[in-house]
């Protein structure tokens, strides 16, 4: 997947600048959404336990505290390794989706190469299912990997795809998903609605990153917001319910204030500082012997 040229990793999360070489100014949409805390300790513990219990070296380590400790230490990073592998797979699938769109727009010729990369990782079925969805829904791309900016609220982001489907303009976000036990794509998180509605509320879109040229955002008038789950077994598109868009926009706005508070607090230093006791009061009449 093409990395947004104006995105930067900072101490305050991913941020965007207005042009190549300029300083980052506002947080990304995903950085804002990440301000909502999600407790994953249970999942991390499950992943570590599952890996340790399935380790063929476990039986031989019984009776050796040092060996058991080593295996437990390796298993403790199972969740992190799973997350990193899923992120890498997601990048490969997103890149294929982007290249398909760019070829359809007449500005790219890399879809075949992107498919070969998936095949090298035994992930060609993701491309197969994506192609089936693309044809079935008659997707007509208008723009791919579009960087957008909202000055009023102060954020930016990059949208996967703007396309026309069934005569309607759609803002689309792709999510690569694993499979449930019954072989279906895992469900999407509701937080994707915040991501989509924040994109819809953009005010500008990037025209040229090198010169920092921006233009008005033309796709914010009543688009369909689609979250598309791409798995190796199926592609499941879901429309954001128009009735919930306002509440998700309000939540995004609130999380944007949380990000601003966190940045300001971090820049100001520690919130609490120890202080010494006040000096003892002088006794009445002064000190004896003066």
How would you portray this structure in words?
By secondary structure, the protein is of the alpha+beta class. It has one domain (7-265): Lambda Exonuclease, Chain A (Alpha-Beta Complex). The protein has 9 helices and 10 strands. The protein has a 7-stranded mixed sheet with strand order 8-7-4-5-6-9-10, with helices on both faces. The chain has a 3-stranded antiparallel sheet with strand order 1-2-3. A hairpin with a 4-residue loop joins β4 (140-150) and β5. α2 crosses α4, α6 crosses α7 and α8 packs across α9 (245-268). The termini are far apart. The model has no long low-confidence stretch (mean pLDDT 89).
CATH architecture call: Alpha-Beta Complex
General shape: globular
Write down the domain tally: 1
Number of helices: 9
CATH topology: Lambda Exonuclease, Chain A
Report strand order across the widest sheet. Answer: 8-7-4-5-6-9-10
Number of strands: 10
Helix and strand pattern = EEEHHHHHHHEEEHEEEEH
Rg over C-alpha atoms, rounded to the nearest angstrom? 25 Å
Strand content: 15-25%
Tell me the span between the first and last alpha carbons. 82 Å
Structural class: alpha+beta
Mean pLDDT: 89
Regions with little confidence, pLDDT below 50 for 5+ residues: none
State the name of the first-level CATH class.
Answer: Alpha Beta
**What kind of sheet is the major sheet?**
7 strands, mixed
Helix content: 40-55%
């Amino acid at each position: 997947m093409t990395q947004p040229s104006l995105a930067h990793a900072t101490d305050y999360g991913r941020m965007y600048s207005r042009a190549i070489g300029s300083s980052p100014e506002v947080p990304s949409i995903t950085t804002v959404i990440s301000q909502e805390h999600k407790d994953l300790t249970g999942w991390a513990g499950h992943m570590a336990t599952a890996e340790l219990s399935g380790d063929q070296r476990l039986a031989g380590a019984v009776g050796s505290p040092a060996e058991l400790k080593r295996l437990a230490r390796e298993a403790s990073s199972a969740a992190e390794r799973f997350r990193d592998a899923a992120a890498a797979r997601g990048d490969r699938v997103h890149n294929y989706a982007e290249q398909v769109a760019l070829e359809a727009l007449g500005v790219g010729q890399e879809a075949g190469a992107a498919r070969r990369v998936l095949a090298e990782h035994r992930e060609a079925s993701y491309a197969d299912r994506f192609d089936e969805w693309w044809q079935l829904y008659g997707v007509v791309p208008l723009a791919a990997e579009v960087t957008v900016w909202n000055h009023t609220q102060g954020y930016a982001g990059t949208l996967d795809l703007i396309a026309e489907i069934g005569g309607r303009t759609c803002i689309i976000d792709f999510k690569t998903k694993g499979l449930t036990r019954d072989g279906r794509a895992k469900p999407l998180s509701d937080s994707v609605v915040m991501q989509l509605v924040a994109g819809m509320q953009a005010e500008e879109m990037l025209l040229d990153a090198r010169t920092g040229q921006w233009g008005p955002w033309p796709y914010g008038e009543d688009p369909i917001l689609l979250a598309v789950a791409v798995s190796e077994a199926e592609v499941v598109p879901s429309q954001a319910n128009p009735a919930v868009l306002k509440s998700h926009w309000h939540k995004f706005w609130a999380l944007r204030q949380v990000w601003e508070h966190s940045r300001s607090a971090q820049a100001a230093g520690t919130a609490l500082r120890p202080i010494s006791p006040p000096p003892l009061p002088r006794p009445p009449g002064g000190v004896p012997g003066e």
